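Next comes this protein:
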Amino acid sequence: MVKSSYNESLIELLDTITIQLDRYAANFIFLFGVVGNVLNIFVLSQRTFRSNSCAWIFLASSFVNLISIVSGLITVMIGGWTTNPANTIGWICKLRAHIVFSTRTIAPWLIVLATIDRWLLSSINAIRRRKSTLKNAQRWTAVIIILSMLLYAQMFYCYEANLTDTPLQCYDKTAVCRYLTDLSFGGIAVVAPLMLMILFGLLTIINVRETQHRVQSLTRGNSACGTSRSSIATSGRSQGKSTHRTQHSLLRMLFVQVAVLSILTVPLSLDRFYSTFSSDNGSAVNIAINSFIYNAAILLYFISNGMPFYIYTMCGGSVFHKALYDFLFMMKRKLMLTLLNSSVCCN
């Protein structure tokens, strides 16, 4: 009797916490993510970045993250106050699931593409460097989007509304569907991208070091030949410092990107793997605990969709900072001109 009462209290507590998270945490993440991605879109759309393949990939990623946040969190926020339409209306459930899972897969693979682009661009091999083009970035972005959408096409069959004894009412309706969704998401949308980010990030750092060694060797060789010795020495030192700063920035960006994505996306992947291979479908308490963990992991994942702008601001260096400053200054000037024109018209 005491145990039954304890279980009921625990279930009620977990349900209450979940509702509060949907009401308040989801609203904060929505605002945080939408503002960050909109600013990213405006900054990366400026002339400074238009012809840069890596910046274009980051721009596309910002659009994808914005779509993921808007499509995924609006129904969650509604569910915090009233009935979540995705839980009760079949076509909304299916469409939301497909968009959210597709964008969750597209976003990390675009970061992988950007990491590969940096690796190509930093290579001492001229053939590899020539592959880092805006056209190639756009082509592979289209490939990633199409494949990701096809990967989750089964959502239109598998996901169903008004389910019971599942973490969400809008969820996979059969065990086969759950295995397919959980394994494809955990392996393809989380684990594989993180491993490739680390791999190509490290290869990029190796390329930077090789370039630095070549510059230093060339500088020493020119000095030995007595060719403009002082000017070459000065140029070598400045190039060495610039290369060192670039290498340090790459290390920092790699660490921050991989660390943030790991912290925020791996919990949902682990939860999906656990639910796939766990044989404990169990009691109402286990269902409530699994549902709470799943909802919390989803919110963490949405935070990762809103983080890129803040990562670029911290680690993007003077170029991104200047572009952000120029955009804010331009908006301020336009606002001042609008107010001034309004004042003149009124007078």
In short: The chain is about 85% helix and 0% strand.
